[in-house]
Design goal:
The chain is an alpha/beta fold and about 500 residues long. The protein folds into three domains: about 1-140 and about 280-310, no CATH class; about 145-275, no CATH class; about 315-490, Fe-S hydro-lyase, tartrate dehydratase beta-type, catalytic domain (fumarase). About 30% of the residues lie in helices and about 25% in strands. It contains 15 helices and 20 strands. It has helices at about 5-15, 20-30, 40-55, 80-95, 145, 170-180, 200-210, 220-235, 325-330, 350-355, 395-405, 420-430, 440-445, 455-460, 485-500; strands at about 65-75, 125-130, 135-140, 150-155, 155-160, 160-165, 190-195, 250-260, 265-275, 280-285, 290-295, 315-320, 335-345, 365-370, 375, 385, 410-415, 430-435, 450-455, 465-480. The protein has a five-stranded mixed β-sheet. The protein has a five-stranded mixed beta barrel with strand order 13-14-17-18-20. The chain has a four-stranded mixed β-sheet with strand order 4-9-7-8, sandwiched between helices. The longest helix has 19 residues, at about 40-55. The chain starts with a helix and ends with a helix.
């Protein structure tokens, strides 16, 4: 199969950069459901622009290109060992070209492989069938939404919902709770794959398989079809909204499957996927490996955004780093900021390092961006950021307050908000949390005018390194201010009350 590696490389590239047709249709509907002048409406406009930019540039929709997961059907007699070898070759090449971020980390040493190859990476599921083509489906699901996957063992007690029993009503409560607990950390607007039953392993696997279904299909099981419709009818009444900013739309898809279970076990497994729902497929010639046809892909995708650039309201506040305490104390929850100057990326590895060591740069008055970019070198050997959206900030909650205090940081950029400890530090030391739009990797890469330096590249790898980025008009929303106010707390509390109204306690 001399064309197999090239076909797989094309599949990986298109999956990372080109939204599936059914997801585009669903998001097109979503874009009309919010007022363009409110926070969620503006976030949706950025999402639409980002999808268009990624497709036109053939660059990653989201900087977190996730764990590549292949679902493959082969005719009897196809050499699956050779196919696995070709997949590895294509993964390495896609990473080298910047279509995938190097995401494979040794769990023992913490070392990033740099090429997305290692034990368990990528994930490949093979199954034989009696058709005369090879089918390859690829799901790229990022870490932010992967962290919001959840599994329930019925019966159980659920916050705001009370007891969930071993019946479909209990399953319904679990699904609503799964949506609520994700808030903005899973990059809502989101989509769910759900499995009722199975064991702990098969349940999660089958839940992810539901994400391979077209969003506009109808479940062949009428009972499950009715449950899917019920979830979709009520999920958007929660008021969580895009990015957890509050709003009319929180979920754009729910697909439910079921497996038989043991008498002692009743699991409900939920695979949460974000708006950057990357899933494509191909049918291949079993002799040559050439692509015969695409699955889920549009040949000429229609633009999602109405305009080439984001229309501003005129109420945005312009700030330039380094920031003063006076700059920060003027900001209030809900303000939209356009930030310019030098900022520094920092994720899990850097935060842990800064708890025990000095910073390689002076961070007084500076901004830490929770971001693991895609970075490649140009022909002159200079680093270029090709994807740069925010990562989920809550992972840094154990560290952030101490780092704000020790280094005099004035602003943190991320997504999904942070907890009480960080909120208190913002108040005590005069700092602010800025929520960028999760997944909008091309929109934010456009704001990076220059890479001025990088620290810890060899030690931490590209995603976790400390990149020094000069940015212009990086847009983010103040969701936690220096006066003790948090939009995330408000939305979580209000959506919890809505949850109780939708499915009252029993």
């Amino acid at each position: 199969m001399e064309q197999l590696s090239q076909s797989l490389l094309e599949l990986i590239t298109q999956t990372a950069t080109n939204m599936p047709a059914d997801v585009r249709r669903a998001l097109k509907r979503v874009l009309t459901m919010e007022d363009k002048n409110n926070r969620s409406g503006q976030a949706l406009q950025i999402i639409g622009l980002n999808i268009d930019m990624a497709c036109e540039r053939e660059q990653p929709i989201c900087q977190d290109t996730g764990m590549p997961t292949f679902f493959i059907h082969t005719p009897v007699g196809v050499n699956q060992i050779a196919m696995k070898r070709a997949i590895h070759e294509a993964i390495v090449e896609a990473t080298k070209l910047g279509k995938l971020r190097p995401n494979s980390v040794d769990s023992v040493t913490g070392k990033n492989a740099g090429n997305n190859i290692g034990p368990g990476t990528p994930i490949i599921h093979f199954e034989q069938w009696e058709e005369d083509e090879i089918e390859v489906l690829l799901l790229l699901k990022g870490g932010g939404c992967e962290n919001k996957n959840i599994q329930y063992s019925l019966p159980c007690e659920l916050e705001h919902l009370g007891r969930a029993d071993r019946n479909l009503e209990g399953v319904y409560k679990c699904i609503l709770h799964a949506i609520w607990q994700a808030q903005g950390q899973g990059c809502s607007v989101g989509c769910l794959g759900v499995c009722i039953g199975g064991d702990r392993t098969s349940g999660y696997h089958h839940a992810k398989e539901q994400l391979l279904r077209p969003l506009d299909d109808v479940n062949p099981n009428p009972v499950l079809a009715e449950l899917e419709e019920r979830v979709m009818a009520h999920a958007n009444d929660l008021g969580i909204g895009t990015m957890g900013f509050g709003g009319k739309v929180t979920l754009f898809g729910c697909k439910i499957g079921a497996l038989n279970r043991l008498p002692a076990s009743f699991f409900v497994s939920v695979a949460y996927d974000c708006w950057a729902f990357r899933r494509l497929g191909v049918r291949l010639d079993p002799q040559t490996g050439a692509i015969r046809r695409w699955l889920f892909r549009e040949e000429r995708p229609q633009r999602l955004a109405d305009q080439e650039n984001l229309p501003l309201t005129g109420r945005e506040l312009h700030l330039t780093t380094p920031l003063s305490e006076e700059d920060v104390r003027k900001l209030r929850v809900g303000d939209v900021v356009l930030l310019s100057g030098v900022i520094y990326t920092g994720r899990d590895a850097l935060h842990k390092y800064l708890m025990e060591h000095d910073s390689p740069v002076d961070l007084r008055g500076q901004v830490i961006y929770h971001c693991g970019p895609v970075a490649i070198k140009d022909a002159q050997g200079r680093w270029k950021i090709t994807a740069a959206g925010p990562t989920t900030s809550m992972r840094e909650e154990p560290y952030q307050a101490d780092i704000i205090r020790r280094f005099g940081i004035r602003a943190v950029i991320g997504k999904g908000g942070m907890g009480e400890k960080t909120l208190q530090a913002l108040k005590d030391y005069g700092a602010v949390y800025l929520n960028a739009i999760g997944g909008a990797a091309q929109f934010y890469a456009e704001c990076v005018t220059e890479v001025e330096g990088v620290d810890f590249l060899e030690e931490f790898g590209i995603p976790e390194a400390m990149w020094h980025l000069r940015v212009k008009d990086l847009l983010a929303v103040v969701t936690m201010d220096s006066h003790g106010n948090s939009l995330h707390e408000v939305v979580e509390e209000e959506s919890g009350k809505n949850l109780e109204l939708i499915a009252p306690r029993r």
